[in-house]
Amino acid sequence: MGVDIGGTGIKAAPVDVSRGVLTADRVRQLTPQPSTPDAVAKVVAEVVAGVAPDGAASSFGATFPAVIRAGKAETAANVDPAWVGEDVAGRLGAATGRTCVVLNDADAAGLAELRFGAGRDRGGVVVMVTLGTGIGTAVFVDGRLVPNTELGHLELDGHEAEAHASEVAREREDLSWKKWGHRVGRYLQHLELLLWPDLIIVGGGVSKKSEKFFEYLETRTEVMAATLLNEAGIVGAAAAAAESR
Fold first, then answer.
1. Which domain holds residue 71?
2. 6 and 99 in one domain?
């Protein structure tokens, strides 16, 4: 079972982790406001119970919009700052009565794409970039995750990259696909100089519109659109839980 905790919604579903597909419809609730640990844990318990009644699953994976180290949140992006320093895995595990494995949301999406999507069977350095409210990143070396890279906060042309090239920036500034595509391309070029990846996967909801801006990306690295779209977080979280056994 995978749970995707975001700033606006909390979604859960059972996953076939041999194929990377949901085996039932998602259960979704709005993220409570304020999104305090108690409030979020209560909603997570409700969606988990909606997917798997008591005794149906002993563990689950969860994404969280933060830097996660040893199950604890070191930052809080789009959730209440009271999460900083919180044992997320412990809190959600106690609320649900199950073992919980937690990882950064972009890391979960990247894990899903590496195992089942655009990056499947790819070696070398693979970088997943999610374009949404901000820019999330996940870096893999020969299939192994380098967690919590947070490369959306790099400086780009005098701006924080995610303030300049995220999907929200495109919407906020009413940018054409061409102008925004060039910004995203500049950001990807910046990543190239730092990491020299063998593949870049572009995810987030906007990836399903890749034909509108991919032609403006001028990179030396192969760039592919993510394939799991809105299911990536749930699938990646479930895969992380399965692989932790």
1. 2-107+231-243
2. yes
Is the CA virtual torsion 204, 206, 211, 217 positive or negative? Answer: negative
Give every CB contact of residue 49 below 8 A, 6+ residues apart in sequence.
Answer: 96
Instruction: Say how far apart CA 35 and CA 8 lie, in whole Å.
Output: 10
Per-residue pLDDT of 167-188, as tens digits, reads: 999 999 999 999 999 999 999 9
The answer to whether position 191 is within a domain reads: yes
Summarize pLDDT for 123-155 with one digit per residue, the tens: 999 999 999 989 999 999 999 999 999 999 999
**Would you call the peptide bond into 34 cis, given omega within 30 degrees of 0 as the criterion?**
yes
User: What distance in Å separates the CA atoms of residue 242 and residue 239, rounded to the nearest whole number?
Assistant: 5
Q: What does the DSSP 8-state code read for residue 91?
A: H
Using a cut of 0.85, tell me whether the model's pTM lies above it. Answer: yes
Same domain, 151 and 86: no
Q: Torsions phi, psi of 25, nearest 5?
A: -65, 150
Instruction: Give dist(CA 93, CA 97) in Å, integer.
Output: 6
Number of structural domains in the chain = 2
Q: Give yes or no: residues 38 and 82 share one domain.
A: yes
Q: What is the dihedral of CA 169, 172, 176, 177, to 10 degrees?
A: 40
Indicate which CATH number applies to the domain containing 188.
Answer: 3.30.420.40
Give 137's strand partners.
Answer: 129
